[in-house]
Amino acid sequence: MKKKKIGIKRFRLNLKKEQKKRILLVLFCVMALVVLVIPAVFLNSIFGYLPVIVALLMVAASYGYLQVLKRSLSYDELSDLSNCQRGTSVDFTVKLKNKSPLIFTRLKPSFYISDLFGADDTVTEEVITLAPFEERNFSFSVRFDHIGSYSAGLKKIQIFDLLGLFSHTIENKNDYQVNVKPKIFDVASLKISNSALTESEKMIVPTVIDGSDYAGVREYVWGDPIKTIHWKLSARTETYMTKQFESYGTVGLSIILDFYSPSYDRETLMSIFDSIVEIGLSVADYAKETGLEYELVYNSRHGEKKKFSAGYITDLMELIGDMPKISVAEKGERKALDLLREEGNARYSHGNIAFCSANITEEMTNVLLELKNRKKNPILFAIVPDSMRDEERDKFLRPLRILDNAKIVFYILSSAKELGGGEKI
Questions:
Q1: What is the CATH number assigned to the segment(s) 19-181?
Q2: Where are the transmembrane segments (predicted)?
């Protein structure tokens, strides 16, 4: 992250330097013109104008030189950037050829890689020369640190004349599309409840009170929603009693991905997207290895609810391409929580529900408590950036304290590699 920020700062500094150079060049030309005109003013003859005439001829010759050069350069991109894994570097090569007997005194090729949002993330510039009829392969390395589909390669080539007064830019309209795949990590351990349904059914005391839609009651546990308290029965028993609702879940795992985040810079948002996807896929892989039924659930980039069960994930990049880009959650944003609540309350949903999110709110913890009350086993994967300061981090994670009291499992992670089992080959 720091390296990328430094790269962007350098690029901006280079732009400022180029602007300063152009201003200084204009000032120099004006001063040179004034100096050249002085002999003509004092001599008042044709010979006094010779310096001006020579200077103009040199400028014209340099401009003509540039016109020949821009028709004499050819380039060919040799790299095949199609698929790679996040965090790997790929070599990219451009073959430059001078087809004329003239010298390219200054060539400036620019290479780039886009970010998840389509903007240029990293721009690399180099200055080289080309001798007459010379061919040269220019290589640079591109590191892809984030999951997704990107464009990368040669952005443009800038050619300069002999005097450095003029330039011509050749824009490269061909983009390489690069698909960056996620990493899968071994999950060291996961508190999956294989017998949650059986145990909870033993705890139910069948009763019908007030004709409400619940299957029984039990003693109130800290963290249970207040609205589920059975007030009449609590008054008679002199202890708080809470309603228990029927559950038709199956022993399996639903993994819900939340692509809404608090407001961060672009680099942090892209890292959060990586964490959500890789944690979700790593947990799914864990479920597969342990023989659990599992499914990935999320709202697609078109706003549709998508659910992929085991065996239906055939093309990983197609799956990621269907996922929405990470976006900043607006005040009152509830789409992911609605998805969590809907999945948890579904009649035949899985008994274990994992929720991967960077948007930690009190409302989210309330939804997890509701699921716990419905005899589900909610598991929270809370993504918190490393860049968050200690005080800010404590305040951000404050809503999670109630989950401890309710014995709801949660993991606080900055990336999927912290799942504890190491990268899976």
A1: 2.60.40.3880
A2: 21-42, 48-66
